[in-house]
Amino acid sequence: MSKIHPDAPHALQDLLTDGMTIAVGGFGLSGIPADLIDALRDSGAKDLTIVSNNMGIDGKGLGVLIEAGQVRKVIASYVGENKLFAEQYLAGKLEVEFTPQGTLAERLRAGGAGIPAFYTRTGVGTLVAEGKPHEEFDGVTYVRERAITADVSLVHAHTADTDGNLVYRYTARNFNPVVATAGKVTVAEAEVIVPLGELDPNHIVTPGVYVQRLVQASNRIKDIEQRTVRQRLEAPAVPAAV
Question: Which residues does 120 contact at the CB level (< 8 Å), separation at least 6?
Fold first, then answer.
């Protein structure tokens, strides 16, 4: 059976239910599965738990789910640039489980590897570790963190083949590989889809065994959260030839 679906709504149409946990790749607006996020918003699914590095910005990326009132809980490493996200959290309207960034990545990786929990030094002695089991190894205290598995994972890749093998591009790779492995069902969007056999096996990051559905990403503008450029300096005058 082909993994390729005609568009994002078709790829998600029979997967979504209220109250499910959805892991989403990306970092801010970099490497986010924008088409799949929009399809998730349009599905109307609500009371969602979203696992992602952050929730994008107002009106873009995962921010559209916050605006639509579809999110009940967020597991993330920081609030980011999303003002509405921060407002809802501070007002007690949105449950947020803050997780250190490296711990979040490892919780997703562990979920994909079938490891139920692990110990880390990160967060010991802080609010992050309150209520969690602690253990001492070689005289050092560690806190136990549970793995994360998602009902559905949504990821963005630069190139895929028809079997779902994925290759990412530069920093747009970010959380996508660990998110891809952590989903019971993983749906990927790719900017380029090539026939099976055209990808160099040495360049494949996510094997197709982790990807159940694949869709061609639309050709859209890739937004940047904060565009910062230096002032252009005037070129020095070139002396006239003598």
Answer: 102, 103, 106, 142, 143, 145
For residue 9, the surrounding DSSP H or E stretch is helix 8-12
Cα pseudo-dihedral 87, 88, 92, 93, rounded to 10: 160
Among 152, 123, 128, 144, smallest CA distance to 49 is for 152
Residue 137 in tokens: 């190894």
**Which of 220, 172, 165 has the alpha carbon at shortest distance from 193?**
165
At 43, list the tokens.
Answer: 């599905």
Three-state SS at 91: coil
| pTM confidence score | 0.90
Where does the pLDDT of residue 242 fall: very low under 50, low under 70, confident under 90, or very high at 90 and above?
A: low
Q: What is the mean pLDDT of residues 221-230?
A: 75
How far, in Å, are 141, 179, 195 from residue 151 at the CA level? 32, 11, 28
